[in-house]
């Protein structure tokens, strides 16, 4: 491998790393907002936390993510 190809690979790696760092805050800002306790108090129906497991990626190698979802509480008999 000559110096020109080596420099090209290094520049590509640096550019890729810079783009991922630059785009990461935008991806985090795009997440949906979660209801706060104050918003939950104003609703007529009581809401409870429910944990939802999601799998992202390859079926054998992916990542399991647990999200908190607010759902109506079950009525106690």
Fold topology:
Layout: H1 3-29, H2 37-41, E1 47-56, E2 63-72
Antiparallel strand pairs: 1-2
Gist of the model:
This protein is an alpha+beta fold and 77 residues long. The chain contains two helices and two strands, in the order H-H-E-E.
What keywords describe this structure?
single chain, 77 residues, alpha+beta, two-stranded antiparallel ribbon, 2 strands, 42% helix
How would you sum up this structure, described in words?
The chain is an alpha+beta fold. It is built from two helices and two strands; from the N terminus they run ααββ. A two-stranded antiparallel sheet has the order 1-2. β1 and β2 (63-72) form a beta hairpin. The longest helix is centred in the first third of the chain and has 27 residues, at 3-29. The radius of gyration is 22 Å and the shape is elongated. It starts with a helix and ends in a 5-residue tail after the last strand. The model has no long low-confidence stretch (mean pLDDT 76).
Shape estimate? elongated
**Arithmetic mean of pLDDT:** 76
Biggest sheet strand line-up: 1-2
Number of helices: 2
Outline the biggest β-sheet: 2 strands, antiparallel
Distance between the termini: 75 Å
Number of strands: 2
Supply the helix-strand structural class.
alpha+beta
Strand percentage, roughly?
A: 25-35%
Rg is: 22 Å
Poorly predicted runs: none
Helix coverage percent of residues?
40-55%
| SSE string | HHEE
